[in-house]
């Protein structure tokens, strides 16, 4: 399992507390994103948190691997890599596509003895109950580029450099195909608390659609609305770090 963790999880030198930290935060990037997206949050959380970000196949140091175009298969692979929490509180946090993936990972961990997360944080993603399906799989590359550019989450410079664009497009295509075919687990499978974050001007997920995440758990649920669009997180890193700290289970926060 150690080798699997090395393949799937990235930590940030100089940020976070490593394996000796009081609690673990596992972060899931958006479509087309990489583990590096979460470095600012790891820095903001400081030494009390062991921040591990999932690195999907098909990007950066996993560029030679084919993207996984099925969200359920991707969740299975991440769970295999994560393994048991080792007794530390574990929080899962995902943004956009990463929110759906974090949810599916939480469901799978919850089926293992003592394996469920202590908290799930979903960001910038409408709830499974908000059935606005991801039908958009752009037929042409320029459609995909324009869609992602409009959301503002990926460095626009990538789209102006043909060589860089050629490198990132396969991962983008794969992630959007995974989203277009995704069906949630169904029912109310979680027992852990769930917190939903959203931007007040997010075209991908309205406040109402994000608020519907409460239907996925029998535990506590709350929504927090920030100023901004789909990538509101970029402008509210310190606030999100503070929010996660405040919502930690007692045994982690104490």
Describe this structure in words.
- The protein has a single domain, classed as Rossmann fold, CATH 3.40.50.1820.
- By secondary structure, the chain is an alpha/beta fold.
- A seven-stranded mixed beta sheet has the order 1-3-2-4-5-6-7.
- The model has no long low-confidence stretch (mean pLDDT 87).
What's the short version?
This protein is α/β, with parallel strands linked by helices.
What attributes does this structure have?
Rossmann fold; AB_hydrolase_fold; alpha/beta; 254 residues; 10 helices; TesA-like
Largest sheet: 7 strands, mixed
What distance lies between the first and last C-alpha atoms, to the nearest angstrom? Answer: 30 Å
Give the oligomer, counting copies of the same chain as homo and different chains as hetero.
single chain
pLDDT < 50 stretches = none
Q: What does the radius of gyration come to?
A: 17 Å
> How would you sum up the global shape?
globular
| Tally of individual domains | 1
Average pLDDT:
87
In the CATH hierarchy, what is the architecture at level 2?
Answer: 3-Layer(aba) Sandwich
DSSP strand (E) fraction?
5-15%
Quote the CATH topology.
Answer: Rossmann fold
Record the SSE blueprint.
Layout: H1 2-8, E1 9-10, E2 23-28, H2 39-45, E3 49-54, H3 71-82, E4 90-95, H4 97-110, E5 119-123, H5 141-151, H6 157-160, H7 162-180, E6 194-199, H8 207-211, E7 221-226, H9 237-247, H10 250-253
Parallel strand pairs: 2-3, 2-4, 4-5, 5-6, 6-7
Antiparallel strand pairs: 1-3
Helix pairs in contact: 1-3, 2-9, 3-4
Domain Thioesterase TesA-like: 26-248
Pfam families: Thioesterase
Keywords: Hydrolase
């Amino acid at each position: 399992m150690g080798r699997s963790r090395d393949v799937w999880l990235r930590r940030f030198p100089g940020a976070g507390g490593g394996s000796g930290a009081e609690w673990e935060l596992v972060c899931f990037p958006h479509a087309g994103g990489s583990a590096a997206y979460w470095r600012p949050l790891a820095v903001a959380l400081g030494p009390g948190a062991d921040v591990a970000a999932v690195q999907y196949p098909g990007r950066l140091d996993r560029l030679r691997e084919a993207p996984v175009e099925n969200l359920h298969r991707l969740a299975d692979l991440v769970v295999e890599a994560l393994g048991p929490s080792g007794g530390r509180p574990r929080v899962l946090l995902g943004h956009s596509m990463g929110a759906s993936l974090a949810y599916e990972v939480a469901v799978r961990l919850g089926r293992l003895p003592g394996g469920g997360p202590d908290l799930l944080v979903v960001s910038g993603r409408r709830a499974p109950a908000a059935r606005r399906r991801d039908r958009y799989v752009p037929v042409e590359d320029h459609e995909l580029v324009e869609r992602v550019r409009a959301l503002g989450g990926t460095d626009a410079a990538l789209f102006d450099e043909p060589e860089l664009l050629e490198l990132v497009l396969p991962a983008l295509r794969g992630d959007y195909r995974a989203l277009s075919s995704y069906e949630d687990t169904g029912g109310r499978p979680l027992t852990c608390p769930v917190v939903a974050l959203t931007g007040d001007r997010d075209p991908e997920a309205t406040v109402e659609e994000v608020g519907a995440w409460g239907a996925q758990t029998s535990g506590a649920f709350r929504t927090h609305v920030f100023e901004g669009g789909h990538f509101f997180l970029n402008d509210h890193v310190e606030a999100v770090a503070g929010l996660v700290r405040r919502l930690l289970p007692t045994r982690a926060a104490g």
